TrEMBL record:
Family assignment from sequence similarity: Belongs to the glycosyltransferase 7 family.
First-level EC class: transferase
InterPro entries assigned: Galactosyl_T (IPR003859), Galactosyl_T_C (IPR027791), Galactosyl_T_N (IPR027995), Nucleotide-diphossugar_trans (IPR029044)
Assigned GO CC terms: Golgi cisterna membrane; Golgi membrane
Protein name: Beta-1,4-galactosyltransferase
Keyword Signal: yes
Sequence ranges assigned to domain Galactosyltransferase C-terminal in this UniProt record: 211-288
Primary localization class, coarse: Golgi
Coiled-coil regions listed: none
Membrane topology: Single-pass type II membrane protein
Length: 345
């Protein structure tokens, strides 16, 4: 009952507390060290630096400023401007001047809604070579389509210089890396130039999981080409694309690169989501297979190796030279020299 035993008890409790605090410190220290290790081991360390490098100036008046974000309200979850299924027209008489004059709110390839803050900032990336008419139809339809969705967006055309075999996947890697120098986009839509969406409820925003937007097209009777198909038009957040190290750079010619991306996604235990079939419909503007884009005969071989190669073949190994960046009224034209296929397989 004396003072001494009580004091003793308090002292013991104090010691316990001290010990507990010490333990916690040690644990925190261990955690800090091990997470350091993880970062060091990441194959994408250099990539992080590129992704976070200083921004090149986009048309700055078009970029949502901090004040704007606090003054304006966020755009509604469902845009009141959507019209659903549309009848598409492809008039041979359409000109670029006409499309420009119909889209004067688009500046330097970029658009930002005037009266609300867009829910996502989206970079549309188009791998491209010699498809003027397709590009014209694309711009004609896509600008109003994206504006009805109230998105902050920019359209990037990634133009492969020279005439060696086309490499869609590598161009898309270049587009991702270059677009991030303009702005910290939330979402990337990888888009073939000859596919035009028929329904504006097919939202060009990214989801928790990678998204495939083309369930059907007129050329396949509006059926999915095959189970697991991830080509044509797909959308991934910056983080999702980083996690899979982007596309492979080694697929020259037509086919396979979209299946490779799907395998990378599966290896990261992500799943592919799709909008309902009645919404995810496209018209494919007719064309012959371009010269310079022959079927890639190596694709099956390459696909078998993806689990071994994805960490070293992708965004972190994408070497190229930018020849020009032209900011046209309705798109940003990035012309790149992406090299040529290595022949030893
Ligand atoms: C799909 O529609 C486009 C535009 O009307 C047309 O050019 C193309 O030939 C159609 N394709 C098929 C297979 O019907
Ligand atoms: C993009 O720029 C290159 C180089 O200036 C040019 O040759 C090409 O025609 C341009 N493409 C488009 C679609 O504007």
């Amino acid at each position: 009952m004396g003072v001494l035993p009580t004091l003793f008890k308090v002292a013991r409790r104090g010691k316990c507390l001290l010990l507990l605090v010490l333990c916690l410190c040690v644990l925190a220290w261990i955690a800090a060290i091990s997470s350091d290790d993880v970062v060091k081991e990441s194959p994408f360390e250099d990539l992080k630096a590129i992704e976070e490098s200083p921004r090149r100036e986009l048309e700055s008046e078009m970029i949502p400023s901090v004040e704007e974000q606090t003054l304006k309200e966020s755009c509604p979850e469902r845009s009141p401007l959507l019209r659903g299924a549309l009848k598409l027209t492809f008039e041979a008489s359409v000109t670029l001047e006409q499309v420009e004059s119909e889209n004067q709110e688009v500046v330097g390839g970029q658009y930002n809604p005037a009266d609300c803050v867009a829910r996502q900032s989206v970079a549309i990336l188009i791998p491209y070579r010699n498809r003027e008419k397709h590009l014209l139809y694309f711009l004609y339809h896509l600008h109003p389509f994206l504006q009805r969705q109230q998105l902050h967006y920019a359209i990037y055309v990634i133009h492969q210089a020279g005439d060696v075999t086309f490499n869609r996947a590598k161009l898309l890697n270049v587009g991702y890396l270059e677009a991030l120098k303009d702005y910290n986009w939330d979402c990337f839509i990888f888009h073939d130039v000859d596919l035009i969406p028929e329904n504006d409820e097919n939202l060009y925003v990214c989801e928790e999981q990678p998204k495939h937007l083309v369930v059907g097209r007129n050329s396949t009777g509006y059926k999915l080409r095959y189970k697991g198909y991830f080509g044509g038009v797909s959308g991934m957040t910056k983080d999702q694309f980083h996690l899979v190290n982007g596309f492979p750079n080694t697929y020259w010619g037509w086919g396979g690169e979209d299946d490779d991306l799907r395998i990378r996604i599966q290896l990261q235990r992500m799943t592919i989501v799709r909008p309902p079939a009645e919404v995810a419909r496209y018209t494919m503007v007719f064309h012959k297979r371009d010269s310079g884009n022959q079927v890639n005969k190596d694709r099956m071989l390459l696909l078998r190796r993806t689990p071994q190669t994805w960490k070293k073949d992708g965004l972190n190994s994408c070497s190229y030279n930018i020849l020009s960046v032209n900011r046209e009224p309705l798109y940003i034209n990035i012309t790149a020299d992406i090299g040529q296929p290595e022949h030893a397989h």
